[in-house]
Every structure is written in C-alpha cells, then in structure tokens.
Amino acid sequence: MANRPNKAPGSKSLPSKEAIVDFIKSQSSESSRPVKIGKREIAKAFDIKGNSRIALKAILKELEIENAVERRGKKLHRPGALPPLLLANITRIDRSGDLVAAPAEWIATSDENIPNIHVRSPNKKNFKGPTARIGDVVLIRLDPSSESSTTEPSGRIVKIVSKHQSKVIGVFRRQDREPNGVILPVDKKALGRQIVVRSGDEGAATNNDLVVATLTKGTKLGVYFGKITETVGSLNSEKSISLIAIHTHGIPDQFSRTAIAEAEVAMPATLTSGHGISREDWRSTPFITIDPEDAKDHDDAIHASPDPEPDNHGGYVVSVAIADVSAYVSQGYAIDKEALERGNSVYFPDRVVPMLPERISNDLCSLKPNEERPAIAVRLVIGPDGRKKSHSFHRILMRSMAKLSYNSAQSMVDGSSEASSSELTKKALKPLWQAWTLQLSERQERAPLDLNLPERKLKLRPDGSLDYVYLPPRLEAHRLVEDFMIMANVAAAETLEHHHTPLIYRVHDEPSLEKLRGFKEVLASIGFKMTLQGALRPDFFNNILKKIEGSPHQAFVNDVVLRSQAQAEYSNDNYGHFGLNLRRYAHFTSPIRRYSDLVVHRALIRALKLGADGLKDDPIPSLAELAASLSAAERRAMVAERETIDRLIVNHLSSKIGASFSGRISGVTRSGLFVKLEETGADGFVPAATIGKDFYKFDEAKHALIGQRTAEIFRLGDQVKVKLVEASPVAGALRFELLPGLREQHRSSLPEGISNRPQKKWKNRR
C-alpha cells in the first residue's frame, strides 16, 4: 500500500475529496494486479474510525453524484475507467500489427469516444493468450498499468467468447429463369446487403431455404458473393427459426464423439461408487419434484417435515436435493470442457440446446420418480418464526416418489384435484406448504424486489408454427419452489465462505445514479414524484409499485423498474444481490443446465471433504475469468432465446398485414416510437415521419415526442392503436402506423410546463 495520504487541511479525521480521488487513482499504478478499493480500504488508509465512517460514506456518495468517482459493486474507480476484466470486440489491426478492441458494453457519452484497447498479437514477443481475429468477441484482462496510464489501455486475451462469423446465415432466394440467386442475411445490421450466389454455388439449396454461406471477395461496387456450404432447413418450416439464433450467435449445438462416448459408458452411481465417495442413504425420504409440465430434466427435489427436536417446536426441516452432476462429469474431461464452452443450456420454444449430453442431463442426473439417483442435499432447519436456524450439506443416494407439475401440485393443495385427499398430498405437499408459510414471514421482512412481469409463453403446433401466446398464472407452487431454492443457494454461499473456499457468487448491483435519475424523470412524466431517503433498498421500488397498483400505468411502471435495474452476473467478488436483498448468494440448484452451479458443487465437495472429485486448481481458469465467461454465455443465451421468440411471433403476424392492434409505447427516440402489442408482447417501430403532418420534437427528459404545432404528445407508456404495415420474420422486425382514436387523449395529456407554441429552433440533446 502507498504511504498514508494527507488529510484535509484543518481536519483531524476526514480527508478532502481531492485526497480521496487521488488515493483511488494512485492504487492502480502501484499494484501489479487489480486492487479492491472501497469504503473499508479508504477508511484504513486515512485512519478513519468510529462515527467518522458515516461521514466518509456521505463524502463518497457526494463524489459519486459529482461523477468524481464511479462505483461498481463495492469497488470505486475513477470515472470512465475500464474494469480489469471485460468483454470486447476485436475491431481492427493497427500499424504495429496489434489487434485493437472496443469494450462490448461501453456507453459513450457526448464528449468521449469509445476507448481503444491494444491487444498483443501472436507475432509479438511475450505473447500470451488465444489467437483472435477481427470480429471476434473476446474476454480481455487489462494490463495493470492501463488503469492509470495516460496512453490507450492494453491487455491480453484470456478467452475467445465467440468467433467472428466468416460465414453468413440467411435466406436463399432465386427468381425463375435467373441464373444467380441472392442471400438475404438474417442479421438486422446487414439487412440492406444482399449476397449474390452465382449459378453452381448454391449446392442443394432451393428457394426460401435457410443457408450458411462462405463470403468471397466483393467488388468495388459493393457487391458481395457467397458460396453456400450448408442448408439449415426451409424457412417455410417454423422449426428452422431457432436455428437462425443458434448459427447467428455461434451456440455449440453438437457434442464431440469423445464427449458422447464418455456419457454413454457412464454407469449409475451407487452408495459407494468411485472417487472415494461414501453416500448417505436417503432413499426412504419421500422427495418429490415440482417442475413445468414440459420439463425434460429434473435437477431438484424437495421434502419437508415437522422438526422433532424439542427446542424447535413448531419448526420444520426442509431438505433440498440437487442432482449430483459432478459424479458423472469429471473436471478436465471432454464433457466438462464442452459444458464449460456452452456455459449453460439454451431454451428455445421448439428445442433445447443442452449443456450436457442427454445421457447425463435427461437420464443419469435427472431425478426421475422411483429411480435411485445421486444428489447433494442441503438440510435446512427452519424455526417457527420462519428464520433458518441451521443447515448442513450431505452427499446422498435418493429416490423421488413423484413427479408433479406446478399446476397439479397447486390443485392438489387447493383441494380442486381428485388427488387432494391422497397420501401424496398429506405426507408430501401439505408439510411443504406449511413450512413455506412459515418462511413467508422472513421473506416479507427481507422484502426482495417484487415485480409483476408475467413471462410470455408460446404454444406451438406440431409443425412448429405458433398457435398462440399466453401468460401462465403465477402460482403459490412457483413461489414455494423458488423460495426454497433461494434458501439452498444462500446456504451454499455461507458454507463456502465459512470454509474460506473461493467461489463464484451470483451478484446483482444496485441501480446506478444515472439510471435512478432516468427513473425519476420517467415517473415525473406521469405525475409521480419519487423521494429517496436513506440507503437504496428493493423496498423503495416495491412501495412505488404498490402505489400504482391497479392504475393504467401499472404494467408500464413495472417495466420501467425492470429497466432501471443492473444486470445480474457471476463474480468472484461478492457485492451482494440487490434484487433479492441478500448479502451473499451463489447458484447451486441447477447443475444440469448451468456450469456455475457445477463449480459450486465441486467447491462444496472440496470444502466438506465429500469425495475426491471436488474442485481442482487445474485446469479451471481463475474464478474471475470463469465468472466473466459464464456471464457472457448467459447473455448470449438470453439474446438468442429472445430473438427466436420475436421471430416466431413476427412470422405468425406476417399473415395479418393491415390488421389493427392495441399496444403501449415501450420506447421513444428521435426517429420514432417503439410499440409493444398487448396481446402478443411483440415489439414494433413507428417512424416519426409517419405519425402525422406535424413536426415532432424529442424531449429526452419527458421520454416523449411532442408536436410543435398541435402540441400532440406521445410518451413512454401511453396506450396506442397501430396498424401493421410490414413484417420481416427473418429479422424479427415489425413496422406499424399509428391509428386515430386516441389523439385527443395524447393532446390533452401534455405535461405541465411544456409550451403549446411551436418552437422555431431547438437543440438536440444526448
């Protein structure tokens, strides 16, 4: 650590703001590796103790508001500083032959350019890392000197997250009697560029086939040529639509022969099978699984019973058993390497791209009823007040007694099912609901973020086409399983911390000051004042949601609250989970579909000495790099799943050109309005030029387009009626026109303080 900085002149306890900022800047240059700089480190450096820490916290908040420092989790940085480990896109090669990258999620301000990161290339001395090319998405670890250097940052590639698509995926089209065909790329950014396929280069492709082509050299006129190398399927079949996302995002969907062979030779685990494991026999415990009706794998089972201990009268013991994937997937083997590359399973409406081969995920590790299965179980002792008194982890052999869906479990408990009086209901479901009811008091006291955003589901026909979109009801059964899984995940994090075992946390940062300002502006635009006193907690948003419950703005405000939140991610640095209002949290309950959970399982095995197949130091990369890689894989899956749903809905609506729909304005830009349809949740665009004969000014603070002559206003969240004028299933894009009918409402809803008079000049604001 550097010499202790000077305190503010005349101050005996608190440093000046300038001294704090200088200290934060200095630490990066004096350390050979990333340093955590937070309130605790600053207090130690300036010898701040006792009540003075409260004043220090206020100073740091002021520095953040003044944009003198920037907070990420519990760490403080100078504004605009790049994190030591980040995702980036390789954009070009400089004159020295170095690769140049740009941060993938960098948000440029009005007076700053996107930073260039120089990456050592293979032909350079002391090169370390994978070989990347222009267009690749990579994980970069910055050189320590980059944080404080006045020159552009530099770093090394630790992993290539996705390769540049030297190939293009699109729809092949050829007119009758035309020798050449064209490919229309599915990438929205390349929609205006057609790729010519010369006669003889189309292979077996026919009209409307979804194809993969290799690009050849273009001409000076901007014409690109391609040779078709693979026919994915016919666009006339909706079952091909999910393949667009798989190919576009480079999601691995085929296992190697080695991985399949490893899965096929795996034998069912026993009480004493392999790796020095001695399992506890829990086969008589009546576990049950509760999952969606269409679930193919079952990685969690639950059981509850009254606690027989006299000192916990009225309490319950809840056991959560999770499939022991580590018993079949050994670290460093082919299955493990390919699971790490995938990061997680990807779920499309018509198919699943699993993280593990089906022999493992759907058979040996799936907790099927009446089948012996290995599991890692956590035993949660809950007091009569709903609080967890203690927990313990066990490596077991279990047997599930029943497989239930959420709907069936709920109807049995409610008494609306014929099986409501069965032994299964009395011995398995009733105790679970009683234990969960106790736990509700703890949940209410914790007050996690409580958004009401039903997840849209797609019902497909046998041919893969969309039948309808629906919003499944949110049942008690969903919340029961979710709450017990959260308790198990917290217990895993607590246990690993207690044993000083490094782990991957599931973290969720609180909203940034910038997003809070934007949230305040949106609420003000609908006449709602927001006042924040004290520390920001999820209950702040919950109170707002309660106040607008039942109002026309309810769905809109729920959506805006969601947008104001940071994105959850994986990290080896624990800064808590804001949404759940938890100080520590780790993913433990889904190792079949998330590699992060498998790592936590192995860490528990290692910490608790439950076998010789625990987490090893090699060849797993550093936890920081692993966490960043898994976060990137998760985002890739989320985007691919969302794009596929959009394409299926747009394909369904493409036969309804000219039809009218009800919707809400979900986004406002200078160029137009984004509208979300109420029935399907599909998003489309209304160009500003088509709204009317007026000139519409974009008011960033009001999130609105305002007519300069008519004073007509279209704000975020407003109800509108639109006509569908164009649908592009390949791109998943819709174009609307606004219909009359609500114009008077929009005209009369002009916010106070906005002039009705046309303005001759106005300045764009960013």
Explained architecture:
By secondary structure, the protein is an alpha+beta fold. 36% of the residues are buried. It has 16 helices and 32 strands. Helices cover 27% and strands 25% of the residues. The radius of gyration is 28 Å and the shape is globular. Helix 4 packs antiparallel against helix 15 and helix 11 runs antiparallel to helix 13.
What does this entry show, briefly?
The chain is built from 16 helices and 32 strands. It is α+β, with helices and mostly antiparallel strands and 766 residues long. The protein folds into five domains: 17-77, Arc Repressor Mutant, subunit A (Orthogonal Bundle); 85-162, Nucleic acid-binding proteins (OB fold (Dihydrolipoamide Acetyltransferase, E2P), Beta Barrel); 167-236, Beta Barrel (OB fold (Dihydrolipoamide Acetyltransferase, E2P)), CATH 2.40.50; 257-503 and 585-640, no CATH class; 657-748, Nucleic acid-binding proteins (OB fold (Dihydrolipoamide Acetyltransferase, E2P), Beta Barrel).
